[in-house]
């Protein structure tokens, strides 16, 4: 599968889905006008990657400074694919990056992490 590289816009995050390297990243703000249209191809690509290489290690980093509820649902859909891959035996690590003092993003990451039993979910605080 070809790498998905999208530059950030004022409403959507930078995307770097490196399927060959098993490294995936979202960075910036996520409140696209149509979250399903934006995240749909990312979800499909991730699903195809996991199906094609079920044992491949995955590193998924999320460094969002803001996201809306539609994007939160899309993130959860991505995370569910990762959790299923980990349950099937793949080494999956999710890095949730948030700025020091940003309690709401820290809490959002903690809320997401509560849904994981197989994938490793890491809370990564960065200096403000």
Could you explain how this protein is built, in words?
The protein is of the alpha/beta class. It has one domain (4-126): 2-Layer Sandwich (Transcription Regulator spoIIAA), CATH 3.30.750. 38% of the residues lie in helices and 32% in strands. A 6-stranded mixed β-sheet has the order 1-2-3-4-5-6, with helices on one face. Strand 1 and strand 2 form a beta hairpin. Helix 1 packs parallel to helix 2 (69-87). It is globular, with a radius of gyration of 14 Å.
Question: What keywords describe this structure?
Answer:
128 residues; alpha/beta; Transcription Regulator spoIIAA; six-stranded mixed sheet; 3 helices; 6 strands
Task: State the gist of this model.
The chain is α/β, with parallel strands linked by helices and 128 residues long. The chain contains three helices and six strands.
- Strand order across the largest sheet: 1-2-3-4-5-6
Low-confidence segments, given as residue ranges, are none
Strand count, sense and barrel status of the largest sheet are: 6 strands, mixed
Shape: globular
CATH fold-level assignment: Transcription Regulator spoIIAA
Secondary-structure content class:
alpha/beta
Average per-residue pLDDT, rounded, comes to 97
Elements, N to C (H/E): EEEHEHEHE
Alpha carbon gap, first and last residue? 36 Å
Return the CATH class. Answer: Alpha Beta
What would you report as the Rg, rounded to the nearest angstrom? 14 Å
Estimate the strand proportion. 25-35%
Q: Indicate the percent of residues in helices.
A: 25-40%
Number of helices: 3
The total tally of domains equals: 1
**Architecture, according to CATH?**
2-Layer Sandwich
How many strand units?
6
Organism: Teichococcus deserti
Protein name: Fe-S oxidoreductase
Domain SiaC family regulatory phosphoprotein: 6-125
InterPro entries: SiaC
């Amino acid at each position: 599968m070809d790498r998905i590289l999208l530059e950030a816009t004022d409403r959507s995050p930078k995307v770097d889905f490196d399927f060959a390297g098993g490294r995936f990243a979202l960075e910036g703000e996520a409140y696209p006008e149509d979250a399903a249209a934006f995240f749909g191809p990312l979800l499909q690509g991730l699903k195809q990657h996991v199906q094609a290489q079920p044992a491949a290690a995955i590193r998924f980093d999320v460094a969002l400074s803001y996201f809306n509820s539609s994007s939160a649902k899309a993130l959860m859909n991505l995370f569910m694919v990762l959790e299923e891959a980990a349950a099937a035996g793949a080494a999956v690590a999710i890095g949730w990056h948030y700025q020091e003092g940003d309690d709401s993003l820290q809490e959002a990451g903690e809320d997401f992490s509560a849904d994981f039993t197989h994938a490793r979910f890491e809370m990564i605080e960065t200096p403000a």
